[in-house]
Amino acid sequence: MSLIRLDARDWRTREQFWAALLPALGAPDWHGPNLDALYDGLVAGENRVRPPLSVEICTTTPLPAALMAYLARVGIVFEDAAHDIGLAIALRIV
Fold first, then answer.
1. Quick one: CA torsion of 3, 39, 18, 57, rounded to 10 degrees?
2. Which of 22, 82, 71 is nearest to 46 (CA)?
3. Whether the predicted model's global pTM rises above the 0.90 cut
4. How far apart, in whole angstroms, are the C-alpha atoms of residue 1 and residue 35?
5. How many structural domains compose the chain?
6. Residue-range definition of the domain harbouring residue 19
7. β-bridge mates for residue 6, sequence order
8. How far, in Å, CA of 72 to CA of 76, rounded?
9. b/e for 17-49, b at 16 or more Cβ within 10 A?
10. Which residue of 41, 70, 76, 91 shows the fewest CB atoms closer than 10 Å?
11. Spatial CB neighbours of 80, under 8 Å, sequence gap ≥ 6
12. DSSP category for residue 4
């Protein structure tokens, strides 16, 4: 299983999340920073890093509530993709 660790100490917005996640996944340049594109990339195997995979978002300070709510939605996308392709795809905040 591939492990991606993202340093979220300075994150305040979802744009900062996408700026870290997409390159870490090895997403194609045309990959959009949105949940539909994330699902498609995971299920179709369009990223350089393919499932099974785990993404750990590492932070020592609390993230803004709006960003935490968005990351919960990202977690649901990961769960849906994992279910649909039968491979582990996990998101953890540590």
1. -30
2. 22
3. yes
4. 22
5. 1
6. 2-93
7. 57
8. 6
9. bbebbbebbebeeebeeeeebbbebbbeebbee
10. 76
11. 39
12. E
User: What sign for the dihedral angle of Cα 60, 15, 71, 4?
Assistant: negative
Q: Are 23 and 6 in contact (CB under 8 A)?
A: no
Q: What tens-digit pLDDT sequence spans the chain (94 residues)?
A: 999 999 999 999 999 999 999 999 999 999 999 999 999 999 999 999 999 999 999 999 999 999 999 999 999 999 999 999 999 999 999 9
Q: For residues 10 and 62, is the Cβ–Cβ distance under 8 A?
A: no
For the CA atoms of 94, 76, 13, 54, what is the dihedral angle to 10 degrees? 40
- Domain with 14 in it: what CATH number? 3.30.370.10
What are the C-alpha distances in Å from 62 to residues 18, 83, 91? 18, 29, 17
